[in-house]
Write a structure and sequence with these properties.
This protein starts with 8 loop residues before the first helix and ends in a 7-residue tail after the last helix. About 30% of the residues are buried. Helix 1 crosses helix 2 and helix 7 crosses helix 9. The protein folds into two domains: about 80 residues, RNA polymerase sigma factor, region 2, helix turn helix motif (Rna Polymerase Sigma Factor, Chain: A, Orthogonal Bundle), CATH 1.10.1740; about 100 residues, Arc Repressor Mutant, subunit A, CATH 1.10.10. By secondary structure, the protein is mainly alpha-helical. It is built from ten helices and no strands.
Amino acid sequence: MDRLETRSDAGLLQLSLAREESAFLLLYGRLKGGIFRYAYYMTCSRTEAEEVTQEVFISLLKEGGSYREELGDVAGFAFGIARNFVRRIERRERAYQPFPDGDALEDLSDSLVSQPEALPGRMIRSEVVERVHTAIASLPDHYRQVVVLCDLCEFSYAEAASRLQCAVGTIRSRLNRAHTLLAQKLKPLRSRQSDIGAAGTEGCLV
């Protein structure tokens, strides 16, 4: 008998639907990280991300029989379920919550606002990251999705295209446009950085 580790995700899903617990646990281990990170950055809540992740795997056991391998991989199928749960959460009436902290978000902040290290003090650094939080949250959904998937979850263009069911070229185009919009929203910070750099740190009270 083949070892479960050599089975494809589709094979593991079939075994999971046949109540093979070890296959389900292995499938869970393969997919949970990507689903959790996506839900975490989209909902800005660890609790809600955990809820989405749990609901996705419950749904896989209930609805996995409708999966068709020729239409895409299991990860993409699971992502579609996660996306629907995230949308339900976003429709709830709740106050805005800032994006969760993380290295990926700080790296994106670095690329959108040039040389943040040159800004004097941690207060300015924190302001940059918080402005990026707000700017991402304000993007139209189709742009926010690609930023979360490609920049924060670090999916490849091909993986993001599979998840969003569109062409790789569309992902590239949306991501470029999203970065342009973010840069425009952050333009006041870039101007402020230039002013501070010209004045020198001795002219700053921070």
